[in-house]
Amino acid sequence: MMAKKILIFGSTGSIGKSALDVAWADKKNFSVLGLCANSDTAALLEQVKKYNPKYVCIVDEQSALKIKSCLPKGVVLFSGLSGLDEFSSIKADISVMAISGIACLRPLYRNIEYVKHIALANKEAVVAAGDLIFNKAKKFSTKILPVDSEINSLYQLLEGEKQCAQLYLTASGGALYEYSPAQLKKVTAAQVLAHPTWKMGKRITVDSATLVNKAFEVIETNRFFGIDYDDIDVVVHRQSYVHAILRRQDGTFFMCVYPPDMKMPIAHAMYHPHTAKINNVPDAFDKNLLFTFEPLNMAQFPGFSVVLDAAKKGGNYLAAINACDEVAVEAFLSGKICFMDIVKILEYVYQRLPCKKVVSVEDILYWDNRARQEAVKYLEQ
Amino acid sequence: MMAKKILIFGSTGSIGKSALDVAWADKKNFSVLGLCANSDTAALLEQVKKYNPKYVCIVDEQSALKIKSCLPKGVVLFSGLSGLDEFSSIKADISVMAISGIACLRPLYRNIEYVKHIALANKEAVVAAGDLIFNKAKKFSTKILPVDSEINSLYQLLEGEKQCAQLYLTASGGALYEYSPAQLKKVTAAQVLAHPTWKMGKRITVDSATLVNKAFEVIETNRFFGIDYDDIDVVVHRQSYVHAILRRQDGTFFMCVYPPDMKMPIAHAMYHPHTAKINNVPDAFDKNLLFTFEPLNMAQFPGFSVVLDAAKKGGNYLAAINACDEVAVEAFLSGKICFMDIVKILEYVYQRLPCKKVVSVEDILYWDNRARQEAVKYLEQ
What we know:
The structure is a homodimer.
Chain A: E1 4-9, H1 14-24, E2 30-37, H2 41-51, E3 55-58, H3 61-68, E4 76-79, H4 80-87, E5 94-97, H5 105-111, E6 117-120, H6 124-139, E7 143-146, H7 149-159, E8 164-171, H8 181-185, H9 189-193, H10 202-210, H11 212-225, E9 232-236, E10 242-248, E11 253-257, H12 263-271, E12 289-295, H13 303-313, H14 316-333, H15 341-352, H16 361-380
Parallel strand pairs in A: 1-2, 1-5, 2-3, 3-4, 5-6, 6-7, 8-9
Antiparallel strand pairs in A: 8-10, 9-12, 10-11
Helix pairs in contact in A: 1-12, 6-11, 6-14, 7-11, 11-13, 13-15, 14-15, 14-16, 15-16
């Protein structure tokens, strides 16, 4: 069996690194064909030495100039957005898409034509442009595997071909789930960033605390599997061991469970349809465990409903709400607004924009940009 | 679609009644062809009126004489062991085997030739004669569905075709799980019979408290699925919502979950391979839930290891340990011995018997009888 050639988009981020670990631990199965990063040249050069890829892409042109002379002979370097387009057109067996933010949309959309197996760690592109992405994937018979642990777990449960009646995403509740409304008004960025179970990037950690991240996952579920919003529920499960639950029509529940470690869904998405080989997997049930489940307190976290209301209207609102949330979270992290203002900005922006159809990546990026402008306008008031 | 013709063995017991409820709630799918009970003529007559079966079997001959004139015209009555043999040779679409104790073995073994879909609620026959039963089922292409909730849940998990690395049966721990060794010496039958989560017959409730029942389920798992004893674990889960857990080779766990209600596995086994239709199935996750998991404390409940040690030797020991346990439990319930003596009898009997191969139902019944005699001898000392 030939090793599968892999492209890693966002190789210097935490998901990209984990994906490289998975590939490196099983060289019979995987060989690294290309690495792509935004601007972290030091980390990328290390990776190039270790994984010996044929192609390298640095999106930031200044960083690309810096790295050029340091690359081993024969390595092909791409840079800038046009370079990213070229890199996204390389034929490979598997792509791991771990670029963060809406910047992932363009390379993802292009890559669907060239690589038939994509492990997709990016959430924003699916939220903003799910229809476009999955329609194109269908057209090119490209398989997109979700890396997000909840969605990945739903994928696994649905593959069991159970007669699904309801899907449940679990939510850890983030860092602030037990805070009172009075406390929530005064929380600092440091408090929000202390996530109880997952180590993740800053934006997703804040989105976990507002429950906006969970609303995004409900949207992902709807996009990935074509499941009605009414058939998707959220259950608060503080321990993050149970990632997703499927209720079959006869009332039996199936749960997908593993300790909170992103290596698990990354490896699943890379190995699919084969069973992942993961070293040192712990036996969770050799010690005492406690799982709690509680209904989501939506009143306390209005961001959840605000995002889903926008999502159900569809079209450009999906792109807008994602863009606006990114601006709002940055403003909170830099101390410009307080925690409860994040949702106010979301509400404000989505109420000011007309609801429009979107038919292209350019449409999505236009509304992404419009929403950012509106959000900035609100912040300047 | 024609309604499927059903035979119910043990129709007046709790599993038999639940199976009839399932059939009655879906008359398009099921029609009751035959009912079989041991001696409860009053309950059986009620059932005959309601379900209108063509065949009736009363194993106890005296009871059969009583009921004969009360049966509606045209109903065929069988009685005695030879009548049970005839009843077991009726061709039907589905049999529900809910006769308790080793008495189920003979009709089950015969019925495998005539009915291709058997929902098997009896544990003792599988423990004592698993090889014979499953070899014959294979020969006649008869599908045997386990009704025992843990084994039924494993069946469902294994059907997902996961690459199974380990199976876990959950144990509620029974009524005495938090008792100290000193308390265990003095427990009364009433204390043992107060099972925290399941309403069941007396013997299985006592077997739950000694953990002998869980050892029997480990044996069932080995027999039903051909899984090595080393790959079967027991996890204490006091709430009885999670019935079984499968660990895939990559370390992901899948759990089968429903509130403790035997209607669920009974309906699954009757409807298989179709999804069961069950009315008023509750949504478990609309309220707060707490699940605990802890490793089994084997030192406190030596019956678990004693039974499994015997089981691993195989042959006649499996029949013997089951028979001996039945005698011991009866002795405990009638106040002849104390709780901790149950295991002592098991140990005593299995150490006194030679280990022999068994090749027929007659062999099994011989060793069943021998073990009972040895157990009674011990009790008389």
